[in-house]
Amino acid sequence: MRAWTSPEVPRVEPVPGAAGDVPLLFDTATQQLVEARPDDIARLYVCGITPYDATHLGHASTYLAFDTLQRVWRDAGYRVHYAQNITDVDDPLLERAQQTGVDWRTLADEQVELFRGDMEALRVLPPDDYVAVTEVIEQIGRATRILLDRDLAYRVEDDVYFDIAAAQDAAPWILGEESGLGRDTMLSLSAERGGDPDRPGKRDPLDPLLWRAVRPGEPSWPSDAGEGRPGWHIECSVIALMHLGRDFTVQGGGSDLVFPHHELSAGHAAALSGHPLARVYSHAGMVAYRGEKMSKSLGNLVLVSRLREQGVDARAIRLALLAHHYRSDWEWFDEALTEAQVRLGAWQAAMAHPVAEVAAEAALEEQALVARLRAALRDDLDTPSALRVIDHWVAASPPALTDLVPRAVDALLGIRL
Ligand code: 5CA
Ligand code: ZN
Q1: Whose CA is nearest to atom 23 of ligand 1?
Q2: Domain 24-309 fold
Q3: 65: confidence class by pLDDT, cuts 50, 70, 90
Q4: Whose CA is closest to 24, among 363, 377, 342, 273?
Q5: Which of 353, 366, 379 is closest to 408 using CA atoms?
Q6: Predicted confidence band at 9 (pLDDT cuts at 50, 70, 90)?
Q7: Ligand 1 centroid to 156 CA: how many Å?
């Protein structure tokens, strides 16, 4: 799939030396801060949208978290290979299409287009590989066939399930290693989040669907696993393996994906490749609105496109989201936009007229400021502290400044002043 146009990212000189400049990131699997250290290049996968009711501020907040990670890596001199999926065939999407009488493909296309526009307006760096499930049906069918042939999958009627117990014996993967959850919690989350723990005939109630055989009225494709369509977790395992390879740097998404999605995507990938899926599992907190998680199923949504239509500056939306630490759960209040607009105005006023040269002392201060900005972001993407660093500088109203600070704000925070 076509992604969207990349914003320009200015280089901020001097570039920090490579060693020691990798960000620390909280890893869900080990529950601690770890270095998100790329090999030759940083390889990042972030779970993409299921294209309906996009883009709400919860989605935007999650993508901004990983946008910040990407900007920190790039600023430190690393190349980044970023992949993202689109879940364009799945039960909730098909249900929504059915309810509204729209063809599911039309719904998905329109929503992906809206998402692209929102991401572009927010200056989110696009993925290098933006892959819809419908583009990789054949590969997912083949992967399912491989798992069947290795006895790591089995059929219940014509549907195919992943055999968790067999995979744990055969692959470098253990259920619970990523999420740290106990079985009872897993069972209830599985039922809530698209699983079918009560289906008779499964070897383990937690075994997830890999391939769903054709049903009347549902889209289906021929494949090595039979006529049907992919289950959910396998799409991300296959897309990630195809484009990033095994054992990549960071697997990301919102915290609602910790279980079952990321746990079982990791299981499928380990069973297919013989290696762990990723090194770090990073999760963004949930944005709530009117007391509950902002979600399509509850309908309590604030859409980026709606705010843009109302004439809200996308930079203010970005600043309002960056004002929260990516890992915290927080609630959106409309006043947050006013605060962000005030902040944006103050930054613009202070940085409106960069000059070519400033006194040596002022230049050193600017460099120290950029160092503080970088340090905040390297510390588990602490954007609230990063914004405060700029606020303090702006409040002190330096008489003249070069373009170093606005360039750093653009490169690292994605705000072009
Ligand atoms: N297509 C799947 C992932 S493979 C999916 O979860 N799609 S989604 O459209 O529901 O969500 C897209 C991304 O936004 C996911 O990373 C999800 O974790 C995140 N997300 C969803 N709701 C919120 C929310 N309220 N706050 C923060 N992030 C959210
Ligand atoms: Zn995913």
Answers
A1: 58
A2: Rossmann fold (3.40.50)
A3: very high
A4: 377
A5: 366
A6: very high
A7: 29
State the Cα torsion 81-13-26-90 to the nearest 10°.
-30
Indicate if the alpha-carbon torsion angle 365, 368, 374, 377 is positive or negative: negative
Percentage of the chain with pLDDT > 70? 98
For the whole prediction, is pTM greater than 0.90? Answer: yes
104 vs 48: CA distance, rounded Å: 17
Amino acid at 364: L
Residue 330 pLDDT greater than 70, yes or no: yes
CA 124/CA 20 separation, integer angstroms: 26
pLDDT (0 to 100) of residue 16: 66
298, pLDDT greater than 90: no
**CB of 87 closer than 6 angstroms to any ligand 1 atom:** yes
The beta-strand segments (E) located in 140-181 are 153-156, 159-162
Report the run of H or E that residue 63 belongs to, with start and end. Answer: helix 57-75
Asked if the model's pLDDT at residue 399 lies above 70, the reply is: no
- As its CATH architecture, domain 314-413 has Up-down Bundle (1.20)
Task: Compute the distance from residue 335 Cα to the ligand 2 centre, in Å.
Answer: 32
Ranges of each domain in the chain: 24-309, 314-413
pLDDT digits (tens, 9 = 90+) for 361-379: 888 889 999 999 999 999 9
Strand partners of residue 160: 155, 211
Which residue, by CA, sits nearest to atom 28 of ligand 1?
58
Nearest CA to ligand 1 atom 8: 49
Which ligand minimizes its atom distance to the CA of 86?
1
